[in-house]
Amino acid sequence: MTEQVAKSPRLASLDVFRGLTVAMMIFVNMVSLNSPKDLAPEQIKGLGIFKDFYFWIDHAEWNDSWNLADFAFPFFLYIVGMAMALSFAKYTIDNRPSKEIYWKLLKRAAMLFLVGLLINGAIYALCDISTKGIFDFQTLRFMGVLQRIALSYAIAAVIVLRFPPKVQWAIAGGILLIYWLLLALVAAPDAPAGTFGTEKVMNYVDSKKFNFASFVDRQIIPAAHFHAQGKNGYEPEGLFSTLPAIVSVLLGYFNGIWLKARRMVRSSNSSSMAMFALGAIVVGVVWGKFFPINKALWTSSYVLFMGGWALLTFALCYELIDVRGIGRKLTKPLEWMGLNPLFAFVGSILMIKLTLKNNINGCAGTIADFKPINIYTSSVKTMFGWAGAGHDTVLFALATVMFWSFLCYIMYRMRWFIKL
């Protein structure tokens, strides 16, 4: 059995795992801009043997399924929890954090939430700035990925700083159980008769609009400030569904605390984590038969299922990198991204919005029958059009990941690390 004493409290595997997750987020976001489900039947036929693979990348439609894109966000929240375990290690029952510490973590969460709002509300189309200005509050989406990270981090941090371990576990389990009961037994009060009760999906989770979580969001968030899918009456990163997302952070925290208690970096740690991971995956699948695995609603079964996969992926990284010391050089590009995740993720989102909203052939103005060609479409076709529909999108997404990895390498060499 391979074994060695840890030389540093910093786990290289955690940085690699974080970088892998950010790379996955960037990749699936780019692919989703022109996924196979948006292609015409004749184009899909042209994808040949790769057709099913491309469909597997983008988010699953609703219940009882999951695609690559559905792994990225819960993985990141899990990593937030693991990092929290390392940064909060000095605080114990006998060494409580001061009020200033709480203000710092709340300030950090507020800044992250604000960045999310600024990204959502900015006007990216240069052609529209003269008439709309640089920020649109009227249709500003209140929630989003960064906003959910901010809220989940802040609430989970308060839980782990204020309560002993047994209470933390009780809170995590209580959230999952209560969320399940509410969504499984309570319909939206404004749901029309006959909305629920399909054979495939049990209880009230089969309706995007009239499940209890979406109903609560509609009471709090004005319709104009929902995601574009708000026209369907639900918010993919809603407020109410952020509750189980807190547990995704706590699961990562529990993993981090457990790992810190191990004095040695050894393979037995990897195997223990793998067994716990498989157990969580099985429980998630079984629970999914009663409460469907659903990313948009962040169902309790989804939390355990994805938490298990996050733990299993980290266990593999831990075994290969920290225990055996192999693959460290090969995973350097991921480690660079893992050391600057905010820079890579936010930068990639800004890149997507700018390339989608701006055209290479200018503004319509008074030109009749003007057909805009956005920068994204032009770049994909120019660089990888030779590969054919679908293939060009995936190749461009991979190139985008490599581009941001290279920028993170430059940041690493300059010793620039952007954090909130």
Overview of this structure, please?
With 420 residues, the protein is mainly alpha-helical. It has 2 domains: 1-58 and 327-420, no CATH class; 88-252 and 261-308, no CATH class. Helices cover 60% and strands 1% of the residues. The chain contains 16 helices and 2 strands. It has a two-stranded antiparallel ribbon. Helix 1 packs parallel to helix 14 (341-357) and helix 10 runs parallel beside helix 12. It is globular.
Put the structure in a nutshell.
The chain has 2 domains: 152 residues, no CATH class; 213 residues, no CATH class. The protein is built from 16 helices and 2 strands. Strands 1-2 form a two-stranded antiparallel ribbon.
Helix content: 55-70%
Calculate the terminal CA-CA distance, rounded to whole Å. Answer: 40 Å
**What order do the helices and strands follow?**
EHHHHHHHHHHEHHHHHH
- Report the major sheet: 2 strands, antiparallel
Number of helices: 16
Task: Please state the structural category.
Answer: mainly alpha
Give the total of domains.
2
Which blocks of ≥5 consecutive residues have pLDDT under 50? 1-8
Radius of gyration: 22 Å
Query: What portion of the residues fall into strands of 2 or more residues?
Result: under 5%
| Order of the strands making up the biggest sheet | 1-2
Mean pLDDT, nearest integer? 87
Backbone shape: globular
Question: What order do the helices and strands come in, and which of them pair?
Answer:
Layout (H helix, E strand, L loop, with lengths): L2 E3 L6 H21 L8 H5 L5 H7 L11 H19 L11 H23 L4 H7 L12 H18 L2 H21 L26 H9 L21 H20 L2 E3 H22 L11 H24 L8 H8 L1 H17 L17 H10 L6 H23 L7
Antiparallel strand pairs: 1-2
Helix pairs in contact: 1-4, 1-12, 1-13, 1-14, 1-16, 4-7, 4-10, 4-12, 5-7, 7-10, 8-10, 10-12, 11-12, 13-16, 14-16, 15-16
